[in-house]
Amino acid sequence: MTAHLRLGVNIDHVATVRNARGAGYPDPVRAALVAAAAGADGITAHLREDRRHITDDDIARLSEQLTVPLNLEMAATDEMLGIALRHRPHAACIVPEKREELTTEGGLDAAGQHNRLAPLVSELRNANIRVSLFIEPDARQIDAAIRLGAPVVELHTGRYAELAGAAQAEELRRLADAAALAAKNGIEVHAGHGLTYDNVAAIAAIPQVRELNIGHFLVGEAMFVGLGEAVRLMRSAMDQAR
Ligand code: PXP
């Protein structure tokens, strides 16, 4: 039987709506608690260098109040390393970050940035934070994750989500091959970016994938059905595919 597939709910865009007005609502911490009560296995939040959505105070409150694991998404910078070491989240996912981008575009170049990432990965690991690298489904990047000693990789599904037809099928094959290669080398496989009720099944069906991180779509759906119901529907789409 295929192992349980965890759902990490990314609450960044609850903070985006809050920050559009600079008011104190909607509160991403409240969203995290609702998501957890509805069956999310963990909460994911990206503290961007420009603080455009999640803030330092959000991370502090999430660290205090959550009863499910927190996965902190962070750029590979000294500032973010310091914040991670201070709050000691369950997990830290290292993502590439460019100030001008709308969202995380493409995976981390783990292969090209080995020397920069190696000390960061080992400091996080020494603090018992489970490190994950957000990478493209590419054998070269997985080899780099192995060399860096990362216990987890998160495969970027953004391209898969944008494509259709034969090109999407080809990208799905790359994801499945990358998941198999990583798992064969003892790396736990997560996936995420751009996942919706309509495209999640094929990713959830990849047997080596153990966790999906999903945010933007769920926060959008929450406007129509409520966040708890959106999380339950996603959970059920994932379970059906498994
Ligand atoms: N995983 C990672 C590493 C991400 O950077 C993001 C976006 O912040 C997600 C998952 C979630 O993507 P989406 O919001 O498109 O569901």
Automatic annotation (TrEMBL):
Binding site for 3-amino-2-oxopropyl phosphate: N10, R21, G194, G215, H216
InterPro entries: Aldolase_TIM, PyrdxlP_synth_PdxJ, Pyridoxine-5'_phos_synth
Organism: Sphingomonas hylomeconis
Enzyme Commission number(s): 2.6.99.2
SUPFAM superfamilies: Pyridoxine 5'-phosphate synthase
Family affiliation: Belongs to the PNP synthase family.
PANTHER family assigned: PYRIDOXINE 5'-PHOSPHATE SYNTHASE
Binding site for 1-deoxy-D-xylulose 5-phosphate: D12, H13, R48, H53, T103
Organism lineage: Bacteria, Pseudomonadati, Pseudomonadota, Alphaproteobacteria, Sphingomonadales
Function summary: Catalyzes the complicated ring closure reaction between the two acyclic compounds 1-deoxy-D-xylulose-5-phosphate (DXP) and 3-amino-2-oxopropyl phosphate (1-amino-acetone-3-phosphate or AAP) to form pyridoxine 5'-phosphate (PNP) and inorganic phosphate.
Catalytic residue positions: H46 (proton acceptor), E73 (proton acceptor), H193 (proton donor)
The protein's name in its UniProt record: Pyridoxine 5'-phosphate synthase
Key words of the record: Cytoplasm, Pyridoxine biosynthesis, Transferase
